[in-house]
Design brief:
heterodimer; A: mainly beta; six-stranded mixed β-sheet; five-stranded antiparallel β-sheet; B: mainly beta; seven-stranded mixed β-sheet; 11 strands; about 0% helix
Chain lengths: ~110, ~110
């Protein structure tokens, strides 16, 4: 099936550092989304991107929809302890059916105070 | 709180058994999605219902089935359970049929098959 390659798999950083993670695919996507999952919870939408080249911010988070439509990145600036969790990219395939999403395997973020 | 309710939160059962997971979507959401999350596979789309009708199928095994009822709640039935079915099962909902990818997830049902 279709796959999203998300990297890195995990990150262990110091509080205050900036974080960058990305997703790539061999397929073209209509939509890129970034979700965060806290322990014991379901994923929560952080940012949604709908146009190639689009750059969108949500507080300290910034995400971009790649020009080729095959990739996206998420940056977190000045990380804080509550940023800990698993970050998932998700994409809706170009020409794909009915809104179901393909998820990357996640980037686990740990923040040292 | 996403507004999506899933029950039970935890379930332990034996191989060969059958279980039913229940989901109540956010008020007003017509579309319900089921996802399976296991350690090595990430989040895998299983199936989508919209206003009572099946609209999309992903990697759902034949031993699994789902339905959406007139009151819009949904149930995922897992039968002839195997050890490998142990996972977190998430329900998500959205307002529209085609959707923009903006899904609201419940807290999940953790299934352990022994």
């Amino acid at each position: 099936g279709q796959q999203l390659n998300q990297s890195p798999q995990s990150m262990f950083i110091q509080e205050g550092e900036d974080v960058s993670m990305n997703c790539t695919s061999s397929s073209i996507f209509n939509t890129w989304l970034w979700y965060k999952q806290d322990p014991g919870e379901g994923p929560v939408l952080l940012i949604a991107l709908y146009k190639a080249g689009e750059l969108t911010s949500n507080g300290r988070l910034t995400a971009q929809f790649g020009i080729t439509r095959k990739d996206s990145f998420l940056n977190i600036s000045a990380s804080i302890p509550s940023d800990v969790g698993i970050y998932f990219c998700a994409g809706q395939l170009y020409g794909g059916s009915q809104g179901n999403l393909i998820f990357g395997k996640g980037t686990k973020l740990s923040v040292k105070p | 709180d996403s507004g999506v309710t899933q029950t039970p939160k935890h379930l332990i059962t034996a191989t060969g058994q059958r279980v039913t997971l229940r989901c109540s979507p956010r008020s007003g959401d017509l579309s319900v999605y089921w996802y399976q999350q296991s350690l090595d596979q990430g989040l895998q789309f299983l199936i989508q219902y919209y206003n009572g009708e099946e609209r999309a199928k992903g990697n759902i095994l034949e031993r699994f089935s789902a339905q959406q009822f007139p009151d819009l709640h949904s149930e995922l039935n897992l039968s002839s359970l195997e050890l490998g079915d142990s996972a977190l099962y998430f329900c998500a909902s959205s307002v529209r049929l085609a959707g923009t990818g903006e899904l609201f997830f419940g807290e999940g049902s953790r299934l352990t098959v022994l």
